[in-house]
Amino acid sequence: MIRDTWRIVRLGLKSLMLHKLRSALTTAGILFGVASVIAMLAVGEGAKQDALERFQDMGVTNLIARSKKPAETATSNSQSLWSALSYGLLYAEADLIQASLPTSVVARVREAKRPMIRGEHFHTSIIVGTEPSFLELTNMQVREGRWLGDIDDRRLANVCVLGATLTRLLFPLENPMDQTVLIGDDDRYRVVGVLSEQGRTAGAGSTPYDECMFIPLHTHQRRFGDVNTTRSGGSFSRERVELAEVKVKMPSSEDVAAGAQVIRDLLAQRIEETGDVLVTVPLELLKQEEESKRMFNIVLAVIASISLLVGGIGIMNVMLATVTERTREIGIRRALGAKKKHVVQQFLVEAGVLSALGGVVGVTLGVGLPFLITTWFAQKTIILPQHVMLAFSISAAVGVVFGLYPAWRAANMDPVEALRHE
Amino acid sequence: MAVAADGRAAVAQTAVAAESRAVSSNEIIAEFVDVHRHYKMGDNVVRALNGVSMKVSKGDYLTIMGRSGSGKSTMLNLLGCLDRPTRGEYRVGGRDVSKLDDDALSNVRGHEIGFIFQSFNLIPQLTVLENLEVPLFYQGRVGAESREKAEYLADRVGLGQRLAHKPLELSGGQQQRVAIARALMNDPLFLLADEATGNLDSNTEAEILDLFDDLRPDGVTIVMVTHNPTVAQRADRTLWLKDGEVEKLVTNADRADAAPTEESL
Ligand SMILES: Nc1ncnc2c1ncn2[C@@H]1O[C@H](COP(=O)(O)OP(=O)(O)OP(=O)(O)O)[C@@H](O)[C@H]1O
Ligand SMILES: [Mg+2]
């Protein structure tokens, strides 16, 4: 059985060798089809992994409600000089969220933009006031020293933890531990810890956490207050914001949808009417991204199918020519006792061998292509063995499918006619 | 299956088996009973064969002659189970094959018939050995047995040293010898040859006809279409066709001892 199969395959190879160039050109269609299937799957897999990592950073079990300055309206313009524009999340709302989601972990976040000074070094960035749970919610690591504790908050201690980039900017040469950073004229904060590099672009708004300074929530509230005055041109604008952000971590990803619903219900008026709160659910974003990836994947699949289809048509074309050229051989074989099924088998195997040869070269090319894509377009690619197997199987299947009709034609020739054929 | 150490021994055994099939030397191995083959050409019907009855006995050497268009090839195609009669009965080894389906006819061709063609019809991309193995391949009998048999028959036709050659590396006469060896690979009931020497010069023709004579003592039966009276002379009998009917059946004088005389049917 195996010996006979091998014999048929060898026969197919021999017949293909009769027309080397023609066979080689025919395999090109399959070759590029297979290579593009592998490359596309590798790009798709890479992009998927990329998205997964990105949202995993944000925390797939997290929910984030963030204060946002509402779009300016006529009323806000006509405000008197000293009255403050009040918007965003309130302490009371954070308490309500925490009470409504008892199984969750909540971190309140305040933000203030200030110049920070250390000797002759100077940097303007965000000072984040937050609770101890913040570290767990953002998956950040303490590189040196410690993170903020409850006791710091209760004592309204002037202690801080620095992001990695900020540390480099303020303490390029010294060890920052137990040194002080000066904010404003006389507000000094003792450095109790330094964070590991986090490497993300977003954090406190558009400022990465690596560039931020972290202090206890109530220290922040006491030192900077809720009202913030900025001067632009000749006029002052005053804003009153209690909390910049409330981060909520649900026990598991199954609870995320319900948690999001609770928060959206609680903040419905703010989200829909005043528009000063934005709720972000990383898990939803991940799902949306997967949704849009699906469209992308469909497009890729269509393109790959088209190139395989073209390859398959090429194979069919060549097999039809082969069958016509070898009509006499078919007649001889039939006279010597070959049944129709034997003729079908012979030409199907030949078509299969032809496209599998294209498949082998296509796999080689397809495995190389993603490396080029990664180097040239900085697009992450991942080659999975099952994808390579899939692409190769498709190539062999294409040969068989498109070889069917020519093989059928060969088998159904009248033996007498076939023998008379020149 | 035990592999015989000697190819000759294996073939000798099958020859004995073939012999034991023959109840008597007059055993009828192929028989036409009022066979018709009509072709519809639009409104016309071409009666290529029109009621032919004839018998081939074991060991026979029969030639078929007749003018062009008299139905010789049509008759040979029917004898070779490549075609089915429109009407009438065709028995191979006592079994009516005129109504068999395509697969069953393929089996009859594969097991009972050996074909020799005017233009040799070896498969060009295969070696001599592989060409010889083709008939047994379709019976699932390729292996040590088929190889030994091929070697033995190649020797028998004088081409034992050419097994690895491709057909195009051989002369016409050599190719036809390979074709004859191939036709014998399945121990057929009879050989069918359509103008087997038509493409060969007269010396080579004589060699091939000598080879046929050599093979006859092994119990080989031959039916051959020819245009050449000298070729026909070397057979036992000649069947003359005219317009799809048997005109006469002539027993050649110098062969009269080899087969029963049958002047008419
Ligand atoms: N497939 C076919 N369709 C229609 N008519 C056919 C077909 N095959 C043969 N014939 C006709 O049948 C008749 C007998 O043909 P056949 O080929 O048997 O003659 P032949 O004796 O072999 O002739 P030649 O000596 O020229 O080979 C001819 O009239 C031929 O035209
Ligand atoms: Mg003819």
Word description of this protein:
The complex is a heterodimer of chains A (422) and B (265). With 422 residues, chain A is α+β, with helices and mostly antiparallel strands. Chain A has two domains: 2-54 and 288-420, no CATH class; 62-249, no CATH class. Chain A contains 15 helices and 13 strands. Chain A has helices at 2-17, 20-58, 74-77, 91-100, 134-138, 150-154, 164-170, 217-224, 256-266, 268-274, 282-325, 327-335, 340-377, 385-411, 415-420; strands spanning 62-67, 85-86, 105-118, 121-130, 142-145, 159-162, 180-183, 187-195, 213-216, 227-232, 235-240, 245-249, 277-280. A six-stranded mixed barrel of chain A has the order 3-4-9-6-8-7. In chain A, strands 2-11-10 form a three-stranded mixed β-sheet, with no helix packed on it. Chain B is an alpha/beta fold and 265 residues long. Chain B has a domain at 59-76 and 101-263: Rossmann fold. Chain B has a six-stranded mixed β-sheet with strand order 6-7-8-3-9-10. In chain B, strand 9 (237-242) and strand 10 (245-251) form a beta hairpin. The A-B interface holds A 3-4, 7, 11, 14-15, 17-18, 328-329, 331-342, 415-416, 419 and B 77, 80, 82-83, 102-103, 106-107, 109-111, 115, 117, 121, 123, 125-126, 134-135, 137-140, 142-143, 182, 186.
